[in-house]
Design brief:
With 128 residues, this protein is mainly alpha-helical. It is built from 6 helices and 3 strands, in the order αβααββααα. The protein is elongated.
Length: 128
C-alpha cells in the first residue's frame, strides 16, 4: 500500500524530522516548529500520533520519551506529491507541468541551466 500524501502541516513536521536525520521527541519537534510559527505542544503531539497511524512516521515507544522518525526519505515523499499533482492538475503530463513552471518565470537562469543538464542526463539514461 502506498504511503498517503501528507498535509501541509504534516509536511512541516516531516521537514523538521528530515533536517535532523535522527529520531526526535515531540518536545524537540515542537521546539523547531515554534521557531517559525507559534504551535501548541499538544497540536504537535496529536499530529505526530495521526502521522504514525497514517504510516508517515515511525514511533519508538521503548523509552519514556517517545521518538519519531520519518518513514520515507524526502525525495520519496516529494516524488509521490509530484505524481499526484501532475495527475490531478496537469492530466498526467510532465510537459504541461514544466511549461506552467517556466511560464511563471520562477526559474533562475542558473536553474534553467541545471534543468537542461538534467534533461540531457535523462535522455542519455533512456538511450543506454
Amino acid at each position: 500500500m502506498a504511503t498517503p500524501n501528507p498535509t501541509e502541516g504534516e509536511l512541516a513536521i516531516l521537514r523538521v524530522l528530515w533536517s535532523r536525520k535522527t529520531p526526535m521527541t515531540v518536545r524537540e519537534v515542537h521546539a523547531e516548529l515554534s521557531k517559525a510559527k507559534d504551535t501548541a505542544y499538544t497540536t504537535v503531539l496529536k499530529m505526530l500520533t495521526i502521522m504514525a497511524d497514517k504510516g508517515l512516521v515511525r514511533r519508538d515507544d521503548s523509552e519514556r520519551s517517545h521518538t519519531y522518525a520519518a518513514v520515507d526519505a524526502e525525495p520519496v515523499v516529494q516524488g509521490s506529491l509530484l505524481k499526484d499533482l501532475m495527475r490531478k492538475a496537469f492530466s498526467g503530463s510532465a510537459l504541461t507541468l514544466v511549461q506552467r513552471a517556466l511560464d511563471d518565470d520562477v526559474a533562475t537562469p542558473e536553474e534553467l541551466d541545471q534543468m537542461a543538464r538534467l534533461i540531457a542526463q535523462a535522455k542519455a539514461k533512456r538511450k543506454g
